[in-house]
Amino acid sequence: MASKRFGKYELVRSLGHGGMAEAWLAHAKGAAGVVKPVVIKKVLPELAAQNELIEAFIAEARISTTLSHGNIAQVFEFGEVAGEYYLAMEWVNGKSLAHVLTRADKKGFWHLPIPVAAYIAAETLKGLHHAHTRKGADGRPLHLVHRDVTPDNILLSFEGEVKVADFGIAKARLAGRKETQVGVVKGKFLYFSPEQATGKQVDARADVYAVGASLYQMLTGQLAFEGPFMQVMPKLVAGDYQPIRELNPDVPEALEAIVDRAMAKDLSTRYRSAQQLLEALTTFLSENAPSFSAERLKLLLDFLYEAEHEADGEGRLLDEAERDQLAAWKPTSKKPKKKLASPDVTQAELQPVADRPAKSGASALRFVAIGVVSLVLLAAVGVTVKLLNTDPPPPPPDGALTIKLPPPPKLPGRVLPEEPKVVVAPPDEPKPQPVVDDTHRTLKLMADTHVVSRRPARTHWKALEDDGTWRVSLIEPAPMLANVQLEFEDASGKQLVPIANGETLQVKGKRSVGVICEPGARVEGEQMAVLLLNHNGSNQRLRIDPRQCADFEQAKRIELDHEKTYQLSVPADASAQLGEGVPLVVTWRVRLKDGAFSAGSLKPGGTTLVSGAVFLELGFLDQSVSDNAGTVELKLDVATVDATANAPGSVARVGKEKLGPVMSYTESLALPLVQRCRALMQNGRFPEVLGAVAPCFKEPKVVPECYRLEGEAYVRLDQRERALVSYRRFLEVAGDDHPSRRTVTEYVNAREQ
Q1: What phi and psi, each to the nearest 5 degrees, are found at residue 446?
Q2: For the residues 407-426, what does the mean pLDDT come to?
């Protein structure tokens, strides 16, 4: 289609239209012939004479032009050309989340990879938090609420950016619109919060709910609620949706808990702000995928749209590591079958309101009224920017609104069976697994297979006083940690300072301290390193789990036979096989059958024995792999000699710590520290529990309840192995009269089987 002029813009092609406006891809020409792509959104010509719609469009402009954030599709200009009002908006070169979900399903991803879904939701929340906290020129909060956060309005650029679009039905103090009054329902009802669905006053928590609903869809491949408005409403208001893990067992319990709280029907339970939900997701990502970035999202989009990129001459070949990542992201469980929807309207709903039982008349009238208002408004409000997506269906024909019982749906190319037959098939006989001779194996380790030193996790941070002087000491045995650095933060920024085992540093004027480290030669589950902080004669301890010191997510994993002992060898000429940017140290970690970890590193020519391991992880300790090249062939052989407890790299069991007097359960409930941790648990603030419970372990008496609280927090954060460490210690010290002893025992026994 030939382009046409629209004021100073050149309209290139239509991007679709909704009930009120149409969107165009346009070019804005600047000085020296510079062309900038933008989106022009303008009121439909046939509606230009309706003052109420024009007022709504102007109100949107008032709202949108106040927003400037990297996660919001920016509005550059509001103007008028020949009587047509328009908005000039940022062109996001990519696709809507709705389009990505459809494409991903077609290419084998019936749900998005879990870290990708969490990342998209987190980036969306950043933009919403900016909008929610905006203030007007008078300094007063605008109380802006988007009210239409759906996958159609979450845009993903091919560079891995996430942007919120279309504040067309947003509510703000400055808008001054009748449509924002209490009792008027807007948006797409399948993403409505209960209060929005029932026409009540909404605030930022309605957007929090919608992000939760979108995250639910990304993780399960289906909406939390599906069906006609009249059938969805009662379930939505009651919060009656199928649990995420029933649809996708791969979703960690911690993430399921986050989504459940975001979609809580009770406003007092739901996250109170976008920032609070963002913090929960950020913590989840830092614990489960700390190295995740926009590049990972870009990789997924490159794969999903590789055909389009090739057609545009922008295609690229994915390397082996990227292909491996995509393979690792592939869903491991089968796509759940959707439940067949019941008819749109029941005979009871067709019955006139006056003929229904009196006790349900008011409720029915309310639902019908809301349904009619929603259907009318849904026809009037459409998607602003549909980046190369399918055009919306045409509006219904004019005329009176009639409701009738529809015939069974007939979908193109699909014939629904009259009655599904239940056939009980005999269970499949398990196929015999091939016998693998692993006596001698050669492991090819690519240079970009890396293990990244983690930045300080939340559990590795300690707040300090700006004007105080602190003495900081690392007091645990040397094999526990390697290359320990402390990250101090003050008003001028962050500073990295190395610290050796037993060394003491004196610092002043710092706000906080965090620990960056690598796991040492032996890392056993019950062992914890300790950073001792002394201030004005008072000691505080920062407990460090060495397994948290490095991220093995991108490492190469090899399954092992735990009944065998292996010898891992790095060739002496490894340096000649790698590029200059690759560290000449191979970091390894194994997990033993009992859940403990052993970790360490090898230089060229080095060997280590691994015994009782379930799997082995390998990688080069390197923060950046962009300059890495080459491949090293490591040797993994079944050892011909038995590994002893003192063999290099093996895990030597240590005796239990000497425990002092134990505090009773009743006595521990009076401790303010325990009371605070229990309150944090009840409010779902699980990461904070881990920090708050740390001082409990330096009490003169051993407090079993603290170990139980720590274990429960780890369970809620889906860190089962760490939970077992805390729970085992709890069982060692707790008396038989502790009310949680039986429950914890059952949990530990179930996990150890």
Answers
A1: -70, 150
A2: 38
SS3 680: helix
Q: What is the pLDDT of residue 717?
A: 76
Q: Are residues 599 and 674 in the same domain?
A: no
List, in sequence order, every residue forming a beta bridge with 26; answer none if it has no partner.
11, 38
Residue 205 shares a structural domain with residue 254: yes
pLDDT bucket at 52, cuts 50 / 70 / 90: low
Give the CATH number, domain containing residue 122.
1.10.510.10
Sheet holding 469-474, edge to edge: 504-508, 469-474, 529-535, 538-544
pLDDT at 355: 36
CA-to-CA distance for 257 and 687, rounded, in angstroms?
13
Question: Could you tell me which residues are beta bridge partners of residue 450?
Answer: 620
- 485 CB-side CA count, 13 A: 15
The reply to whether 273 and 129 lie within a common domain is yes
The last residue of one of the domains, among 329, 362, 386, is 329
Tens of pLDDT, residues 130-169: 999 888 777 777 788 888 899 999 999 999 999 998 876 5
- 546, 601 Cβ separation under 8 angstroms: no
Q: What pLDDT was estimated at residue 243?
A: 93
Residues 703 and 598 in one domain: no
Is 152 an annotated catalytic residue? no
Query: Are 494 and 500 spatial neighbours (Cβ–Cβ below 8 Å)?
Result: no
Task: Indicate which residue of 105, 138, 148, 428 is catalytic.
Answer: 148
Residue 102: enclosing H or E segment and its boundaries?
helix 97-106
**Predicted TM-score (pTM) of this structure:** 0.49
Which strands sit side by side in the sheet containing 162-164, from one edge to the other? 94-96, 154-157, 162-164
Q: Check: CB of residue 651 under 8 Å from CB of residue 522.
A: yes
Give tens-digit pLDDT for 315-368.
777 777 888 888 889 898 888 876 544 333 333 332 333 333 343 444 444 444
Tally of residues, the chain: 753
Q: What is the rounded distance in angstroms from the CA atom of residue 192 to the CA atom of residue 185? A: 9
